[in-house]
Amino acid sequence: MSSCQDSPEGTVQNILGQESLKWVFVGGKGGVGKTTCSSIISILLSRVRSSVLIISTDPAHNLSDAFQQRFTKSPTLVNGFTNLYAMEVDPTLENEETPGGSDGMDGLLSDLSNAIPGIDEAMSFAEMLKLVQTMDYSVIVFDTAPTGHTLRLLQFPSTLEKGLAKLMTLKNKFGGLLSQMTRLFGVDDGFSEDAILGRLEGMKDVIEQVNKQFKDPDLTTFVCVCIPEFLSLYETERLVQELTKFEIDTHNIIINQVLFDEDAVESKLLKARMRMQQKYLDQFYMLYDDFHITKLPLLPEEVCGVEALKSFSRHFISPYRPSIHKGTLEELERRVSTLRERLKGAEAELERLRKGKQKA
C-alpha cells in the first residue's frame, strides 16, 4: 500500500503544469508547515509564470519569517526574485482601520453589515479580493490560517451573497424611509439611497465573479498540508469533505515531517514513531488513492530564508528518496560504522569516569 505505485505522481508538478490556474489555496491544521509549503509552491510557480503573488491570510503571519523579509498589506517584491511578490493581510481588520474611519458611506455599510453574522469579515475579504483583482498577477497563492478559519474564508463569498441579498431586502422595505431621512437631515448625494445601492451592487458583482472562479477547477485548486498523525488525518478528511461541499477543487495533499528509515536508526522512540507514521501514511493512500500525495522528510533544522526554501523545493517536484535503502550492504556498513562511533564515544566516557574515580 505504501509504495502507492498505481497512485498519481507524488509531486506538485500537476499544479505547475496547469497554466490556467489563477488561485492556489494552501491550508491544513495549525503547525503542519503550511507557510513553508505555500512559500515553496509560490517559488516554483515563479519559475513557470510571469508574475506570482503570495498572500498570507493568517492573523499570525509567518511569511516574513519564512522569507526572512518584512512584508506588509501591500505587495512587496521578494528579495532575490523579479516576479514574486508577497503581502500579509488580515481579513478580520476592523473597519476603523480603513481610510476614512467609520464616517459617511463606509460607516453606514459597517453598521448595516454588523446586523448579519460573519458578513463583516466577508466584506473585508471582498475588499481585499477587489484590490487583488486590479493587480495583474498570473497566479495568486493563499497561505491560509488553520482549517477552521480557512473554511470560514471559503464561505465568505456565499456569506456575502446571502448578506447582500438581505441588505437589498431591507433596502426595498425601508428604502423610502431612508431616502426621506437623508433629505430631512440634509445629507449630500454621496450618502443617498442610490449611492448605497450602487456600492452594494458593485460589491455583489465582485463576489459573484470570485465565487464563480473559486468553483472552477481550471482556475482554482486547494492544496491540503498535513503530518502523518491521527488528528491531522482527521482534519484533512474534514477539510476535503468541506471543500467538496463548497465545490472547490482539491487533488493535492502534502504530508510533511515524515520520518524515513534511512540513517541506521537505533532509537526505540524513533522506530516507534516511524511505525506510527507508516500506519497513517497507509491510511492516507487508502483514502486518497486518486490524489497527488507528496511526502516531505522531517529535517533536523528549520527551513527559513530564500536559499533554504529553494533547496527544499526539490522534494516538491521529485519524490524524496532515502539515501540508504534498508537491507542493502551499504545500509549494513552504515549501521556498523554508526555503532563503532557510539562504542568509541562510550569507551572514552568510561575512561574519563575511571580517571575521575581514581583521583577521588
Automatic annotation (TrEMBL):
Gene3D superfamilies to which the protein is assigned, alphabetical: P-loop containing nucleotide triphosphate hydrolases
Principal place of residence: cytoplasm
Pfam families, A to Z: ArsA_ATPase
Localization terms from the record: Cytoplasm; Endoplasmic reticulum
GO CC, alphabetical: GET complex
Binding site for ATP: K29, G30, G31, V32, G33, K34, T35, T36, E229, N256
Coiled coil regions, renumbered to chain: 329-356
Domain ArsA/GET3 Anion-transporting ATPase-like: start-end pairs: 22-315
GO BP terms in the entry: tail-anchored membrane protein insertion into ER membrane
InterPro entries tied to this protein: ArsA/GET3_ATPase-like, ATPase_ArsA/GET3, ATPase_ArsA/GET3_euk, P-loop_NTPase
Single Gene Ontology MF annotation: ATP binding
Active site positions: D58
Keyword Cytoplasm: yes
Keyword set, alphabetical order: ATP-binding, Coiled coil, Cytoplasm, Endoplasmic reticulum, Hydrolase, Nucleotide-binding, Transport
NCBIfam families hit by this protein: GET3_arsA_TRC40
Annotated family: Belongs to the arsA ATPase family.
Its job: ATPase required for the post-translational delivery of tail-anchored (TA) proteins to the endoplasmic reticulum. Recognizes and selectively binds the transmembrane domain of TA proteins in the cytosol. This complex then targets to the endoplasmic reticulum by membrane-bound receptors, where the tail-anchored protein is released for insertion. This process is regulated by ATP binding and hydrolysis. ATP binding drives the homodimer towards the closed dimer state, facilitating recognition of newly synthesized TA membrane proteins. ATP hydrolysis is required for insertion.
Subunit structure: Homodimer.
Record-given protein name: ATPase
Protein's organism: Actinidia chinensis var. chinensis
Source species taxonomy: Eukaryota, Viridiplantae, Streptophyta, Embryophyta, Tracheophyta
